[in-house]
Structure formats: C-alpha cells, structure tokens
Amino acid sequence: MTNNPYKTLPQNRFWRSAVQQSDPANMLGIHDPTVILNKSDTIVTMGSCFAQHIANWLRERGCNVPFYDATDNIRAKSFSANYGNIYTVRQAVQLLQEVQGKHEPSEPVWPAEGGFADPLRPAQFVTAFASPEDVAASRLTHLEAVRSAIRDLDVLVFTLGLTETWRIRACGTVLPTAPGVVAGVFDDERYEFVNLRYGEVLSDLEALCNEVRALREGREFRMILTVSPVPLTATASGEHILRASTYSKSVLRAVAGDFCADNDFADYFPSFELVTNPAAKSGHFEENLRSVRPDAVAKVMMTFEKLCLADTSQVETPAASVRDVDCEDALLDAFAAPRQVSAPSPSFPLLVVGNSHLASAKGQADHNPMGQPIKYAATNFLTHSPFDTIKADRFRHFEYRKEAQQNFANFTCDDARVLILVGCDFMGDGIIRANGPLLAGRPGINGREISPDLPIVDKVTPKLVAFYRPEAKRIVQLASRIQKFCDFDQVFWVAAPDMTETAARFRLGDEFVVSGAYKVHKAAYERAFQKVLDRNRGLVRFITHSSTGLSTQSGFSDDRYRANPNPWDIHCSPEFYQGAFGQIWSELMSKAAVNA
Prior knowledge:
By secondary structure, the chain is α/β, with parallel strands linked by helices. It is built from 17 helices and 16 strands.
C-alpha cells in the first residue's frame, strides 16, 4: 500500500485539515489566481448582486472601477453602469447585442407606479419616468455608457447569479424580474418562465466573451468569474426552493469552473465556497439564512484583495478595514492578568471597545471612581468588526478568533448601559491613515517604508479640509448607526492619541516633524469633522485629548507618554488618557447624581 496517490497530497486536499479543522476566515490554499489585477487596470463589474460588493470594495481601495452612466435619479453606483443586477449570462449577452444594434426588445417600456419604467432596469431609479420618451432617452444614454465601459475595460469581473429567468415570448428578451413584481403587468401569454441548463449557460458565457471582443474590435481582455452565494428568494420551477436553489448554484459553479479551465484569460474566484463553507456553520448568513453578513463579505473581499491584487501595498485601504497590528502583543499583555473589579454596581455597567489603543486606555478605565463592572472587547482579535455588524449585534455580542481564545473569551453584554469606544480611527493615527496604510514595525525596518507620506503644508486650505472630510464623515456615520441600532444610555468615543514625537520622527521624518505640518493636518481634520458633526449631532459624545501638557511644539505627543521604547510604536501610555477619561467619569457621575 505504499503506492497511495493521496499520501503526498498537501493538507488543503483533505476535508479534515482543510475544512473541519480550518479557520473559515483564513482558508489556506483556497485559491491560486491566474488573473491578477494591477492598480492601473480598468475594471468593469457586472452580474448579480454580489458583484456590487466587489465594485464597492475595489473603489474604496482606490482601484480603477469607473462609473460610466448618467447619475440623475439613480439609486446607486453599484456597478460600472446603471444596469443593476444582471442575474443571467443571457441578459448580459443581449445587453451587449443591443448596444451593437443586434438585438431589440419588443417591449421598450412598462407602466409603473407614478409613470413608466425600463423593463430591463425596473428597480434602478428612485422615481418612475414621466413618459415613454424619457425611458427611451435614458436607455440610449445607458447603452452608450455600456459601450464605453466594455471598450475601456482591462478586466471584466462577472458574478453568475441565477439560471431561472422570465422571457418575453415575442422577442426572446430575458428580464431581470418577472413582470408585475416591480413594474409591468404579468400575462402568461406574453411571458414565459425559463430555467437555463448547463449547456445553455456555458454557451451564453462563450457568447458574452465574443460580444465583448466585438465591441473591443478584437482586443483581448481578462475575466474573473464568481458565483453568487445568495440562494434563490423564490422559484417558479415547481421544485422545492432548496432543490431549485441547489440546482441553480450547481449549474453556475460547474459552468464557471469548466469555462475557466478551458480559457486562459479567465479565472474563477471562490466567493461562493468562502461564504457557504460548512466550517462557518451558517454564520456567514443573516437570520434569514439568505443575506450574506457584512463581516462575511469583508472576509471574502480581504481574501480577494490578498490573492488577486498585484501590489496590496499600493492599495488605499480604508481606515476601518486596516488591521491594527502594531500593538497586539501589548493588548495580550494588558488582558492576560486577571483584572480586579469592585463589587458590581447596579448603575450603568460599562462596555469598553477599542483597537490596540485599548491596551493603554484600560489602565484608566479599570480605575473608574464609581466601581461599575466593566467588560472589554479588543477589536483586533474579534472574528468580525462590531462596526460591520452594528445592525445585527448592536455592540452586544463579541466572538474572538480561535487563536485568541486563550486570552479572550466570547461574551454577550446585554446589561451595559454605557459604551466607551477607544481609538478605532477617530483622530490620532486615523489622521495618518487617511493618507495611506500605517503598518507594523520591526527591528531593522525603515520607518518611511511602513508609513504614508504626508505633504508638508503651512496653512489650512479648503482643499485640505475637503481631503479629510470623507474620513470625518465615515466616523460620524458610524456613530449615527450606533445611535440608530443600539440602545445604550450614553456613548463616548475617545480619540486615538497622536503618536509620540520619537515615533513621528522615525516614521514620517525629521523634516516633517520640525515643519509643524502635522498641526495643520490635524486642524484641517478637526475642521472637517466639526462641519460634518454639526449636521449630524446625536447620542455619541466625542472625547478629544487636550494638547496642553500632552503635546510638543510639533503637534505630536510628548515622549514621556511613550507606551513602548520601540521607535515605530504609535501608542501612548495609560497616563495620556487621564484627562479624557476624567471627562467621562465627570459626566457619568453628574448623571448619576441627577438620577439619584
């Protein structure tokens, strides 16, 4: 039995090691890409709803995913043009044929509530069109946008969604939704149900690539195929919905795999497998067991980014998605020893959530003067960001990654009445991260290699304020979502500290520190933040650090507050947080006195 063909196979070929004992968030060996995206590539996305996530994720990271269509009255720029969800490959084929004048739907307009609709885009507009002529004009604009997108693209990312569709009998045009669902009137003499088979979908995919080449006058392109993991909502096939959904996804997965195996220009990315992985125990889906949870989408897209983007160091990672690794050891140290807590108090127990800055802030939170019980959640080690799951978890349920559970235990915190957030990209290193990734350091590293370049500026300009506005807006929007979906009595968000001057000199350079430019950047960020906050005031109280006694002339924190002697470390000591937490204790004690 020495001649066993399985004996020398790697671990990712065996169910036990590759699935049963695996981490669903880190599926090693799940994909070996053959199509790699470069920062200069023009990327066009098309297909079912999961393709929206790909487009939005890539845009947020500075990849070139243009939107070609008109923006008047549209619901969102979710794809590369305003075609909306294209659930079947055949619909995509007919769209490109229509662009070239080779296909013409026999029903160019449908009646809709308040006016008229485009039958091929019935849900893409906020309000109905006033006339059939308006529908026709918008359709022409759309077709030209599609023409431009296909001609410009370097890579087409297409998500296969369904095999089931409805078709106009007179012309064979397939529809995104059945007549009568969003617009139009159903008539079984005019419309027929179709459930496309393997051979038909494969043939349609080949036809789609031929139509792309025709529009590009023979120029080749690259293609990434995915299969949507979202099950069918309903079926008209006569089968049980589970059987129908399994059939549809099986056909699409088989077509995608075979097509990519036969065509070197195409590659299959396993988003379907990453979401439906049994090791996740359905945890990647919402309670309806159909909608994919935001944190699951993030896991899939982080895998996509890691494997399919040529140079992730050049990708503009949004601050909320940056994995804060600089101080994970400090976090582990801070939470390794048992914490002494005063006797439980019935008044508003505290929940403190933060990134790596939590390690130092814990020193102040532990000594709260009122003796409330405290629960801590270190976001660095959670299986998903609580900001991504606000609606579902409401900052109440926290689960830690498998490798972190020797230091942290999963917990539910339904009784907390006060939430304190620490860091999490609000000010401090969030200002730096707005300019690019802020990476972890190590002995022998050049600080400039792990830090973004900040321009030396001498005054606050409208342009600089506008640069920081998206980051400010993102923080305030997260705060608004906390207010909308959570039920805390009070929420405080403590700003991340400015890195110490020694760390700033190591990371950003002596010239930048001496110039005083950081104070200008900080002032621009604060002005942008205040403008956004003035229009969105709510429950969350933002706590900033006083510069008096904490900062040097450069605007960075004084070196006496260094948390670690390593020159790359961006964190400050527990003493730095004394003033900020003093504000929180004062407000909580005042409220307790009023309610007494």
